Structure formats: structure tokens, C-alpha cells
Amino acid sequence: MSWLNRVRNAIPFIAKKSDAPDNLWQKCPGCGQMVFTKEWQENLSVCPHCDHHGRIGPKDRFAQIFDAGTCRALPVPQVKEDPLKFRDSKRYTDRIKTARAQTGEQDALLNAHGTIEGHSAVVGVQDFAFMGGSMGMAVGAAFVQGVQEAIARRCPYIIFTAAGGARMQEGILSLMQMPRATVAIQMLHDAGQPYIVVLTDPTTGGVTASYAMLGDVQISEPNALIGFAGQRVIESTIREKLPQGFQRAEYLLDHGMLDMVVERKALRQTLARLIDYLTAAQAA
Q1: How far apart are CA 243 and CA 246, in angstroms?
Q2: Which of 125, 236, 240, 276 is the most buried (most CB within 10 A)?
Q3: With bands split at pLDDT 50, 70 and 90, how would you rate the model's confidence at 282?
Q4: Which H or E run includes 43?
């Protein structure tokens, strides 16, 4: 033990290093400011300095959106986990195990049923922390499950998207989830139920090319990255310089690809109002 540590431990009013929590502060990815973790959490994981909306998982999202005590998680659909026996630098099954250990979830999309200011709804949330929210067979099955539950309960299906695209370890099977989700959305429309999309940072790839852009109402959180391919890939393909921030939510709103950009603190109220509007005709 060094002299400094011996002196520190001998003085009673100085907290020992081992007693001090290591998670008191959190660095904002947007502005770089240090924020008290408690303040960050109380502000719904939004930076109080720059309004950067941090990425959150399904549990936090459900807690923020549903009325207290009404959230009921749906069972995770079971699919074949490694249909192609894929291996790169690691086995695909090992990557899944690692993601499950890190997030505590079975896969990248979870569904739950509850009420939003008294309005019944089924909500699906993609977790970017689970292998980049990538769309594989499990995500496709969960999306269909959410739609079917909404049809059975005669209520809207709301999806919070966050994805890096299709899951390469499942090849063509992951790409087939795009038309599969599209057919499920048509089933929801045939049943007369609304489909609302909330795009969060980031939503890219095959998810953007399918169910993320097929909502009756398209909402986004502020400054969310939304696109199909990356900016450098597009610029090298078309050999043109693209506008700054052209894949951010505010740019897409200005150019007609979104209906609204809503801050996280106002999302619950906005969704409740939309459900009220979209289901008024059914009630009548």
C-alpha cells in the first residue's frame, strides 16, 4: 500500500476509495459533458445540457411508455438459433450467448402489452445493445408475434426501431424477414388496427427498408440517425457530396419522410393522443 493510500485510510472523514461508487457520473455521447447518473436516469436518459437522447433498452422504454402496473411482457418466440452453422472469428452461437449475458434479453426485439394513458396497445422495442439490434429470424418472429397480439386484442401495434440492419450470420433468412414483416403489417391493416413507428437512434439497413418506414404515422426521437446505407457508401456510389446531416431525423422531417420529431418526455402523451385519434372511428 502506498503512503498516500495509508494516509487516506487513516483519516476518518475521507471516504475510502473502495467505498466510492464508480458509476456516479456518466459522460454524454453528444456534448461530452459529465452528468450525474441519477440526473441522467431521472431525465429519461436525455442529456440536460445538449438534449442528446441516449439509447435505452426495452425495460426502460416499457417503463416510460406504459401506465404504471399495466405492462405485461409477451413470451419470446422460439426459432432455430444457428440455421446456417455460421462462423467468422467466433461462432454465431457464442455471439448470441455473449449478447444475452450483456443485455439479459433473449434477442433484439421484445414485445409487451399494456395501456398508454388508458389506451390498450402492444409495443415492440428493438434493443441496439443486442448485436446492434440486427434483424434475424428471432426479430422477424417477434415482430409477427406483436402484430398478431395486437390483432387479437384489437389495439394498435407500436414499434420502437433501433437497428444496424439485417443479421449477416443468418444470410438470406434474415433478409426474408423484410417481406414477412410487410405481410404482417398488411394483416394489421386488414384488421383495421393502426401501426405506429417510432424511429430511434440508429435505424438503418434492412429495418429501414421494411417495417420502419411503413407506419401509418412515422415519429422519430430528436437527431436520430435514420437511413439505409452509410453516407460514405452513398457518396462513393453516386459520386456526389451529400448535405450535412441528411440522415438525421430533422432533415427527414423537413423533406417529408417523417410526420413528427418528438422529445422523449413527450412521447407517451403523443402516442396516447394518436391512438385516440386513430381508433376514434372504431369506437363510434
Answers
A1: 5
A2: 125
A3: low
A4: none
Q: For residue range 138-171, list pLDDT tens digits in order.
A: 999 999 999 999 999 999 999 999 999 999 999 9
Distance CA 43, CA 53 (A): 10
How far apart are alpha carbons 127 and 143 in whole angstroms? Answer: 13
CA distance 164 to 98: 18
Predicted model pTM: 0.90
Nearest to 199 by CA among 189, 190, 210: 210
Whether 167 contacts 174, CB under 8 Å: yes
**Residue 49 CA: distances (Å) to CA of 39, 129, 264:** 11, 24, 15
Instruction: Report the distance separating Cα 92 and Cα 94, nearest Å.
Output: 5
Cβ-based burial of 25 (10 A; exposed 0-12, middle 13-18, buried ≥19): middle
- The DSSP call for residue 23 is -
Residue 196's nearest CA partner among 139, 122, 137, 145 is: 122
CATH class of 55-283: alpha beta
Helices (H) and strands (E) in the chain, counts: 12, 9
Residues composing the chain? 284
Contact indicator for 245, 255 with CB cutoff of 8 Å: no
Interval 207-227 mean pLDDT: 97
DSSP state of 156: -
